[in-house]
Protein 1
Amino acid sequence: MSDDYDVLVIGAGTGGYSCALRLAQLGKRVGLIDRDEHVGGTCLLRGCIPTKALLRAAEVMDTVRRSTDWGIEASGEPDWDRIHAFRDRIVEKLVKGVTGLLSARGVEVIRGTALLLPGPAVEVDGRRLAAKDVVLATGSRPRLIPGVELGERVITSDEALRRPAPPSAVIIGAGAIGLEFASLWRSFGSEVTVLEMLPALAPLEDADVSKEIARAFRRRGITGVPGATVRTVKDTGSAVDVTYEAKGATTTVSAQVCLVAVGRGPVTEDLGLEAAGVELERGFVKVDDQLQTTAPHVWAVGDVASTPLQLAHVAFAEGYAVAERIAGLDVPPLDYALIPRVTYSSPEIASVGLTEQQARERGHDVEVEILNLQGIGKANILGEGGICKVVAERGGPILGVHMVGPHVTDLIAEPMLAVAWEAAPAEVATLFHPHPSLAEAFGEAVLALAGKPLHGV
Ligand code: NAD
């Protein structure tokens, strides 16, 4: 095999492998480089997939605990070896699937640490590979808090994923990772405190979503402290003491584990970026709206790129877009405003488009419907509540949809289409939603906005 590629992709996570697969489909000779033993990156190996497998086990635990609600006498205890074996089975199956697909499409997976060279070219553990284009897809890793050292009791999601639920935990950060682990661990009986620096849990979501998740977490016995400034995190040898300030008072919580979930930073060091002319922006690889870096023929996708939202489905879309652009297809810039945001806590959170506040700040004449899931038959059968909030321009299109409740991470796909196609509530209201289904929540909310609520007064 020669060392001349059309494209070399550095990083075999969602962004990198989707880009490589599409490039191969478009007839390119592609090398996909990763230092990890397996392809899949954060999403498959340490993120989305293993955490959702654990959250499924948590859902089963919750169902067992509440089984008499449905007339079933049942009891059960977690068996962590088997829960982790379930997580590993799912991950292994999906890794095998991606590995097989890459091989079937003729993508050459190269194991090693890559260094970008001017040109561009890439050196992998001393071997020089040539390419017409290089795609950086090196991803991200957990951010740390300055002065807070990781250890046996102070951990990030990378470690949290591999352990049984601790008896007690303090979680710093109420973004997606913080909320998902709070939910997961609470389902297995942990005493959980979540400290969030900003004034609300899920602070980037619509204010009504933040309120609803705070209420739901309170009911589940999770302590949420917004507006908290963490002062110290101290491992005492038998526990970890976290001292924070909120509302003018200083409090210390002691727990078995402190999870640091304050965001993820890009992986850019020792990649040869500066020498190759690739500039950074706030630490991320600077890209234009085509995802080209400042070095000719060097592109960046996924968490390492300076685009909004570090999400696997964004990385996938960016990987595809870059593959097609390299192959000479005309691909318009991605519209990040249309990307659904999802959190797999119990209850789940999902949203797309503008929050009510953003819509007002942008000068829209806004109307809003907040549908309570208590009015939806299927939600009652499942024994879960929540909301579906629709934000629309008065007499105009739906601008945003914000949901809390069961399976809303699946349900958000329909509102995504409505927002993307700038559908008016009255237009969606002429369409059909199966009964009884959770999809009726969105259907009923748009009926209400169209002035003809089915159940409302
Ligand atoms: P995040 O940026 O979503 O949330 C971090 C939170 O920590 C923020 O609310 C921030 O205000 C808070 N914070 C920061 N510093 C703090 C401090 N010192 N004290 C208290 N709070 C502090 O990051 P994350 O939850 O760590 O997730 C990382 C990335 O991975 C995000 O982009 C996230 O969207 C993505 N992710 C997505 C999913 C999903 O889509 N379901 C799941 C997990 C992670």
Protein 2
Amino acid sequence: MTRRSPPIIGLTGGIGSGKSTVAKCFFELGIQNVDADDIARLVVLPGSECLHKIHQRHGDAILLNDGTLNRRGLRDIIFNQPEERAWLEALTHPAIRKGLLIQLDKATSKYVLLVHPLLFETKQNEICKQVIAIDVPAEIQLQRVMLRDNISEENAQKILSTQLSNKDRIRNADLSLKNSGNTDELNDKVFKLNEEILALTSF
Ligand code: ADP
């Protein structure tokens, strides 16, 4: 018998909105996930085509001593040069998409979450049966990012400003999930949302 891949449910939200935390709550309920940020790290590992091209374009300064990508260096470049951001995205997004599809296809849970901060921007919402957007006030998001990544408010704000606003994401999504409370409240909300999605995907 051939296996049918489970339906894909998108989970999106800006940096620090709680995507990983939410994905973990779903995992505890038996729902697997594929995280675009993890795949994005895989496609630039030493020996990859993407890292080779990045090295060719930006020279040795873009590599650390151990041959891995100098992420901070690359982040500085793309923050300040929009054309370099566009070049990098044109290179990496197709590779990330391919990696995501391979992983999604391997999932065995009732549905699988595609966790992606740029789900709409990269049009990956098109492969999703439903999309959940995390709804969190920008001030809370900013505080959580500063705390988690130990970065200044200015840098956290800069990252946020390159992404769609939460309002736009929520407007485009089918479902929204509030993450402005504590983790117990979040667990309860995820439990209910899982029931809702199971009802939507059991056909
Ligand atoms: P993302 O994956 O969207 O970047 P994370 O799941 O890593 O976001 O969450 C960002 C930070 O906020 C993490 O340190 C996480 O532990 C914390 N966090 C997320 N949700 C909550 C919550 N409901 N209460 C308290 N802290 C939270």
